[in-house]
Design a protein that fits this description.
The protein is of the alpha+beta class. It has helices at residues 3-41, 137-149, and strands spanning 48-62, 69-81, 88-100, 103-104, 109-110, 114-116, 121-124, 127-134, 151-166, 169-170, 174-185, 193-195, 198-206, 208-210.
């Protein structure tokens, strides 16, 4: 074979490789474009959360130590609804805890990994505990005032990751944050339902949700 023929053969091979790369690249771009357009058309709506009730077992502020400590024990019932009719939702590594004036007062409770189908509603009823949690002086002072007034605003917070499912395609993880206000009354037993030593409060309170 002449050197001229070898030159033509190498050039042809390079052109073939270029065409293959261009074809593969074009196919990948087309697939990504189809997924993007499908995603835009079926853009998911964030789930809605509702705090249905809370059963309070313990809520005790102790000033005998330095700093003041708060012991909390309650069970909450919270529901989530998937408003999408074409998109499913995976809940992964989702924690729920109670806070007062932006200070976490219970340990996070991990909710089970859950798949929520189109328009489905999921209900969780976790227990939340916080044993002798130190609180800042200004938090203790505010809590004492609220207790004397007979009403305390406790926020039930949900924090975790969600993924969207469209057909067989599953998205990456998105951060989920929900905040559910719970107004707990003290002194007025008519505001709650006595269940032994505990008091159950009915709320059906909508939550703010960010995804």
């Amino acid at each position: 074979m002449s050197e001229k023929d070898c030159g033509h053969s190498d050039e042809d091979n390079k052109k073939l490789v270029r065409l293959i790369l261009i074809g593969v690249g074009g196919f990948v771009i087309a697939v990504l474009l189809v997924i993007f357009l499908f995603w835009v058309i079926t853009k998911p709506s964030k789930p809605s959360f509702v705090l249905q009730d809370a059963t309070l077992y313990t809520f005790n502020l102790s000033a005998d130590s330095e700093p003041d400590v708060l012991t909390t024990s309650l069970q909450v019932t919270i529901s989530s609804r998937n408003p999408n009719d074409k998109i499913g939702i995976y809940y992964e590594k989702v924690d729920i805890y109670a806070s007062y004036r932006n200070q976490q007062i219970t340990l996070p409770t991990l909710l089970p990994v859950t798949y929520q189908g189109h328009k489905d509603i999921t209900v969780w009823s976790p227990f939340l505990y916080g044993e002798s949690v130190p609180v800042a002086p200004y938090v203790a002072a505010a809590l004492s005032q609220d207790l004397n007034a007979g009403m305390v605003l406790v926020n039930i917070k949900v924090d975790g990751k969600v993924k969207w499912k469209v057909g067989t395609w599953i998205s990456g993880k998105y951060h989920l944050n929900a905040n559910c206000p719970a107004y707990i009354t003290f002194g007025d037993k008519t505001k709650g339902i006595a269940t032994g030593a505990a008091i159950k409060y009915q709320f059906v309170q909508g939550c703010t949700v960010d995804v």
